[in-house]
Request: fold
Amino acid sequence: MPLGSPFAMKVVIISRSDALGGAGVASLRLCLALREQGADARLLVLNRHSGDPAVQAVGWAGGNRLRWLAERADIFARNGLRRDTLFAIDTATQGCDLTRHPLVLQADVIVLGWVNQAMLSLGGVHRLCQLQKPVVWVMHDMWNCTGVCHHSGNCQEFCAQCGSCPLLPAGSQLAHRTWQRKLKLYTHNPIHFVAVSRWLAGACRRSTLMREMNISVIPNALDTLGFSPEFVNDNPWQVDAGSKVAVMGAARLDDPIKGLDRLTDALRWLAHHRPDVAHRLHVVFYGAVRNPALIDDIDLPHTYLGYVSDLQSVYRRAHIVVSASECESFGYTLAEGMACGCVAVTTGTGGQTDIVSHLKNGYVAADLSPEALAAGIAWAVENNRDRNAQHRWVADHFDLDKVASQHLKLYEQLIREQKNKKQEPSP
Reply:
């Protein structure tokens, strides 16, 4: 259906980006999936990278930059001038006012994605809720159910009231005050939350902020037609005959949460304890790395590709896809690799278990130790899986049409409820 069709449900999705990071990619894919199902879906972003006509940038570059700097400066002053936690924290004090944007005013449903770093403030979300339209918030990490962090790690303060945050100086009230602002927002606005995995939904239901909120579980969407399972055997990385190629990648590969050190330790363990496996393994890395030496010091054949735009070209030349993350809310790299026929190896402390079934389409490590991950890699090297079957499993669960249908069913329900509420007589 063409953009702007008067007969289509109008959906506006709001996300900081349409391409940077998994959440931005997920928002663009959801927009495309909804359009394929006949909805007039548009995506509003601060940073527009795709050329899709449904994507529109908001604000002006100077103002967006000033808001971003103001929020970062305030966090920097409150986190004890720590650079290592500067982007692990978000307070949503700065953002665009989109209440008068034409696409927002015309929308039947407002969908929020990852809206931190000066896209929307909590006050801006409240003002959108006051437009009397259904508001759906798709959660791509734990930020909605914590005070200020995106992943709690071993911290369980989000199950209380985030009174003591390990990312902040002792005695800081920033996390708790942000928690209070979120509680006020959630209490006074009928937001429907969508978690992209059962794990994330479970974390939200354990939190004091969200245990009473309306939460649905709908996974991220993947255009499985764009990820083909046919193996390409042109050997661009000079892989030894008989070896298996294992791939690990991320937008920023050395982000501590991605577990690059866990994987490199696992590979060293294999080199010393399972040379029979190590000799049959070639590891390919992609993504930004600030210190390439982190990869160079590995006792196995390996290739570092840097930034890659065509992920299919990597996965179709590989046999195994690895996620060593401490925590993933969903696990896009696993789904993408499996859609291209790879066997998945992952830790099991997040939404990855919605994608990987242990010993069926992959291996879920028993714990976060390098030895447990090494056991999974060894299993994948020694066990072949049908590439077409791997692709079909992903298509059956995460294809665009299946995910879009779940979203549209939810939107239709919320629109009906909104209309019924408006028709109710005043007390």
